[in-house]
Design a protein that fits this description.
The structure holds two protein chains of two kinds. By secondary structure, chain A is of the alpha/beta class. Chain A folds into two domains: 233 residues, no CATH class; 84 residues, no CATH class. Chain A has a five-stranded mixed sheet. The longest helix of chain A has 32 residues. Chain B is an alpha/beta fold. Chain B has ten helices and 14 strands. In chain B, strands 6-7-8-3-9-10 form a six-stranded mixed sheet, with helices on both faces. The longest helix of chain B has 16 residues. Chain B is globular, with a radius of gyration of 22 Å. The relative contact order of chain B is 0.14. Classes of the chains: A alpha/beta, B alpha/beta. The interface between A and B is medium-sized, with 26 and 29 residues.
Chain lengths: 337, 296
């Protein structure tokens, strides 16, 4: 079995590595993206204002205080520990506990300064107790890089495997393999390994480039981050294989893969945080493996999380992998209908 | 061709929706022979052979290999050359063979396979850069990497020029000489007659005849054929008691008394300089059994 998997893996790797155009695109495109981001984000940070309200309920009652009616401010319900941490990292401008009459602010944050001035202007003098929350700023680019790494893994794993399997089926290569002792699970394992190697190689390259060019924040365990990338890749390849299990048309495969990638790109927190989004959107986003991969990656890179902290996400990614591998292996056909 | 059959097909049925492509056929493939499966387009021969190869499921019926239901052992022991099969791009001939070689427990000497299929000079060539004949030789080599006991060749010479076809036939002859069983599907009756020890002719999903080509021809025909260009025999002589057919610009006269037929033609003043006398061939039997109308 191992011998057969390695035979297919080796041939697939040779095919990919010698296809200079595809290889170049797979490596160059993400690097160009990072270079573009370096040019865009090297000069400054965001200019919007976000304030956390320390309360259990998600609904914000704007009538509770005049400050909550300030235009162009996002007010987000959050627990105290998370809110203070995010203020310390400049991810929030201010955290407010209405009931205790206390607010937290990072004295080094320009956004915090303006948020505080407006709070004072909308309140009676001496109404609030001020608490400092100090820490290094987490810039938007720090926050964005895990999203870019995850997005690259997503496209590489879903389209790289899905299209290849459909092409093999359409041109009869799978039919030829079916006449050998090779089993579907062996073929699928070889495809997963091949794409995993590529995805991890490109991700490591990108990670190194972002550290070099953007000095991206990395607070936690590199090994844990590597494990997140591996599990994210395998879970996404599994989805790609399940999607391509029976399809014989590249157009249909493209449509199905887009059906998965676009919601993930918009709702998994690649470009922006879903912290201020409606509750149902946040819950919906949990069905996507990329959401869990990015949550874990940001916890590790931005907040110094270790294995134990991201274990729930690792388990969810493992579960998604098992589910889609089972679906893919069950549905897999060497030939089209 | 002694002993129990290497392969037995029993009551094989294949339906595609309402269409019955194969209608309950049974036959045995003797070991160590070249067995031909012939039939016009749509006869069900490709469906039949793909069911045997295990790439298409049967609606009902069974395929027995060495007396057992064809399964894992059959896949290890069989080699398949499809008429058309895509290979991976950017991979060389040798790398392709090595990949397939590693899929089997039972393995041939890969250099010997390369030599047998005359691929020595093409070992480092990208699959995409092979000509039609070279590609067919590679597909045959892939089918032989496991030193198969039974080899399936599906329309192996379609699209080849006459020289490449003759070379391919010699290759098949060499394989057969090593006591391999070959199952050949072909449209070319000349090919079947040259290579096959036994044939099955299928038409509309059923077997219309089976046996050794010479035996079948002797059983079906007691006559020989006189052929004249139509231009040389625009009108038949009076009192000419032989079956005649006009095909492809020729007049065919079927007779068991060639001397009498020639004498009558000569008396009628027909020019005989281009007269051709030949026995019935497999192609004649094929056309007589399956009809002469064009199949879609």
């Amino acid at each position: 079995m191992i011998q057969r998997i390695l035979a297919i893996l080796h041939a697939r790797n040779l095919e990919f590595l010698r296809d200079k155009a595809t290889l170049g695109w797979n490596v160059a495109m993400p690097l160009l993206l990072v270079a573009g981001m370096a040019a865009i984000f090297s000069g400054g940070d965001r200019a919007s204002y976000k304030v956390a309200l320390m309360q259990a309920e998600q609904e914000i009652n704007t009538a509770a205080h005049p400050y909550l009616q300030t235009r162009y401010f996002d007010f987000i319900a959050m627990d105290q520990e998370e809110a203070i941490e995010r203020v310390a990292n400049h991810q929030l401008d201010l955290a407010l506990d209405l009931h205790a009459g206390t607010y937290w602010i990072n004295p080094e944050s320009p956004g915090g300064y303006f948020a505080e001035r407006l709070l004072e202007a909308s309140s009676e003098e001496g109404a609030w107790q001020r608490q400092p929350a100090s820490g290094d700023p987490i810039t938007y680019v720090d926050w964005l890089i895990p999203g870019i790494l995850g997005m690259n893994i997503m496209f590489s794993c879903l389209f790289g495997v899905g299209y290849v399997v459909v092409r093999y089926r359409k041109n009869g290569f799978l039919k030829r393999l079916k006449a050998t002792p090779l089993r579907p699970v062996e073929f699928m394992s070889a495809q997963i390994l091949s794409r995993l190697l590529l995805a991890i190689f490109v991700t490591l390259l990108l990670y190194a480039a972002t550290r070099l060019l953007l000095d991206v924040r990395m607070e936690g365990s590199g090994l844990a981050l590597f494990l997140v990338a591996v599990l994210a890749s395998i879970s996404l390849v599994s989805i790609g294989l399940a999607m391509a299990a029976r399809v014989t048309s590249e157009e249909l495969a493209g449509g199905l893969l887009n059906l998965v990638t676009w919601p993930m790109m918009l709702l998994s927190g690649v470009w922006f945080s879903l912290a201020g989004a409606p509750q149902w959107v946040q819950q919906l986003s949990n069905i996507f493996p990329l959401t869990h991969a990015l949550t874990a990656a940001r916890e590790i890179m931005l907040y110094g999380a270790g294995f134990a902290d991201v274990l729930p996400q690792l388990l969810i990614l493992t579960g998604i992998t098992a589910a889609f591998l089972t679906v893919g292996a069950t549905m897999f056909r060497w030939r089209g209908a | 061709m002694t002993g129990p059959p290497i392969l037995a097909v029993r009551e094989l049925v294949k339906n595609y929706g309402q269409v019955r492509a194969v209608r309950g056929i049974s036959f045995d493939v003797p070991r160590n022979c070249c067995f031909g499966l012939l039939g016009p387009n749509g006869a069900g021969k490709t469906t039949t052979v793909e069911i045997i190869e295990g790439v298409t499921p049967a609606t009902s019926g069974e395929v027995l290999y060495e007396g057992e239901k064809a399964g894992a052992a059959f896949r290890q022991d069989s080699g398949v050359q499809f008429q058309t099969a895509a290979l991976q791009d950017f991979i060389t001939v040798r790398e392709t063979l090595e990949m397939f070689h590693r899929l089997y427990r039972r393995r041939a000497d890969i250099d010997q396979v390369i030599a047998d299929c005359a691929l020595e000079k093409l070992q480092k060539r990208d699959n995409r850069k092979l000509s039609g004949g070279q590609r067919q030789r590679l597909l045959l080599a892939i089918a032989m990497v496991n030193d198969p006991k039974i080899l399936f060749l599906d329309e192996p010479t379609t699209g080849m020029d006459p020289q490449a076809r003759r070379n391919f036939w010699e290759l098949v002859e060499r394989i057969r000489a090593r006591k391999k069983t070959i199952v050949l599907t072909t449209h070319y009756m000349e090919e079947a007659q040259a290579l096959c020890d036994e044939i099955v002719i299928m038409n509309e999903g059923v077997i219309v005849t089976q046996g050794a080509p010479d035996t079948l021809l002797k059983a079906h025909y007691k006559e020989i054929i006189l052929e004249l260009p139509e231009a040389d025999l625009e009108k038949l002589p009076e009192e000419f008691p032989f079956h005649t057919y006009r095909r492809n610009g020729l007049v065919e006269i079927h007779t068991d008394d060639a001397n009498e037929a020639i004498t009558r033609l000569s008396r009628a003043g027909a020019p005989l300089g281009r007269l051709n006398i030949r026995p019935f061939r497999l192609e004649d039997l094929f056309l007589d059994l399956t009809g002469k109308e064009l199949r879609s």
